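@channel sequence for tomorrow's demo:
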Amino acid sequence: MTVNTTQTLTRPVIGRGVAPRPEQQAVIAGTRPRPSASAGDVVLAYLRAQAHALTSLEPAVRADEFDSVHQMRVATRRLRAALRSFRQVIPRADSDHLAAELRWLGQALGRARDDEVLAAYLRDGLRPVPPELLIGPVQARVQGHFAPRRAASRTALLEALDSPRYAALLAGLDRLAYEPPHGPQAAARARDVLPAAVRRAYRQAKRRMRHARQTPPGAARDAALHQARKSARRARYAAEAAAPAAGRPARKFAGQMKRVQSVIGAHHDAVVARLQARELGIGAYQAGENALTYGLLYERVAREAERLDAAAHQVWRRASRRRHRSWMR
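structure tokens (generated this afternoon):
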């Protein structure tokens, strides 16, 4: 069992693996900054809240409670986004190693989460198929395809949580969150510093969305959209972190980026599920089974991916309107 190296914090247990909403996290950690706070105070409060969420969710992840892996993965992403977005507050020398270790932890959580999501996605995709077109042991093949993968990814995740590397990550987060930041803008007013950092994250998302739109349909466009989603997510989390200083406009902008992230995330799920449907169909054919149902599933998922591709660009146009970002100066 991993020794929790952050026992110095007072952390109420979060039940059922559900992390608090962003606006609640600073309150739980007892460090809600004032609107007039320095950039360092606001960023550190956010880091403490996310570190609190991460460590509080660990017991739920170990117990395999519903949605706990997803919530812990979100906490790692928020921490990493803050470290990358606010380098004028937390300099690279202090944050680069931690960001890399959070990426490692996020990947371990992601493998466990992705297999769970894909299995459910394909099972849901089979529900509308008429019974007469469910030919062969389709549900059993989906279950048999993902069950060993889920078991292996969960074993790997638990090994990661038991590792000295994870304990060192928690210790590093504690050191960072409770030492005064010494970036060149750490002492400046948060309202004068953090909006510009959010704007930089937004501009990266804008460039990537433009690149995705200009890429012909196919695997390259799917990959470009996935990269754009990562940038929109980073902009969202940066805005959430800046909200104590920037107020309601930052929270509304974060909500807009969340919509973009959700639509592109659904597109990515459909793209990956399409590939898995093809793989399942090939396996069924090679086993001497009728692969018709997998072809129907592939076509259904492919149409959904096309629909979400178009929806992604529509939701981006709405989210990127000037009124949503005028506060970023």
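heads up for whoever presents: Residues 1-30 have pLDDT under 50 and may be disordered.
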